[in-house]
């Protein structure tokens, strides 16, 4: 049997040729090659998605090492998250991977375990492995430092693309959730329900997400006539265990609190457990609880959790779309709305004893 005359029609490891993929997708061989083998010429997202689906259906696998040598990049996108087992980051990753798969890319995910130094390390490793794009999904820090910015700039200077999810002081395309506005809506809800003695459970305050959500809540509280210094703020780990410990600390300091706002849903789950199992408080009869993010399980809790919804999968998808689209002259900032979802964990403030 004679080999394919056109080298772009070479067979993948499973015997499927690039021509087979092109025919399945209903595109030219050149278009299929640009999508799967990399090209400086831009292919529209609809065509790229068709080619990606066809390649997946036919189980086509291109010769990655040869392509990497030929064009100095791979069909890989790197995704850096804080915690791989955190549903917040898992949802963002799902959206990013969905878009990447539709464009024939493989996503390589790395977890920092909330160690800021690992972000720099992973960006440098991705650059060494010639990945096409890097997404940082996770809060920046108040004192970001120059090292991460330099690592990302070096990656971009080498032809890589960069996108960020959440606020950073870095000059790259960024998907921005409405953290401040969402938290302000919680302040309004609690004021409307008559709550005046409230507690706020936060993660580490050097995280911009924490600073924005706490600042948005306190701004809203003050604008509605409350004393900005009145809410009792307790800092802990941004996790279920952190929320549990912070709730016990909160009620030891302020036992008359009638509402708890946890700055993420995992902390809110810990708060619910501490209130009901450890402190014997009824939710929402004695204490209302509000979270933030609207993770997939929050509607199934007992009681169902009032929270601020962010479209997490959409955030990941938008970030991946940014790095796969033609670059803009200036960094793009894509706003993402936040929506207050009122469920069974909130109610009117109890009358004073």
Automatic annotation (TrEMBL):
Q: Which InterPro entries match?
A: HTH_LacI, LacI/GalR-like_sensor, Lambda_DNA-bd_dom_sf, Peripla_BP_I
What GO molecular function terms would the record report?
DNA-binding transcription factor activity; transcription cis-regulatory region binding
Q: Name one Pfam family in it.
A: Peripla_BP_3
Q: Which residues form the HTH lacI-type domain?
A: 16-71
Concerning PROSITE patterns, the annotation shows: HTH_LACI_1 (PS00356), HTH_LACI_2 (PS50932)
Q: Does the keyword Transcription regulation apply?
A: yes
The reply to whether DNA-binding figures as a keyword in the UniProt entry is: yes
Q: Cross-referenced SUPFAM superfamilies, in alphabetical order?
A: lambda repressor-like DNA-binding domains, Periplasmic binding protein-like I
* Keywords carried by this UniProt record: DNA-binding, Transcription, Transcription regulation
Q: What is this protein called?
A: Transcriptional regulator, LacI family
Q: Which organism is it from?
A: Geodermatophilus dictyosporus
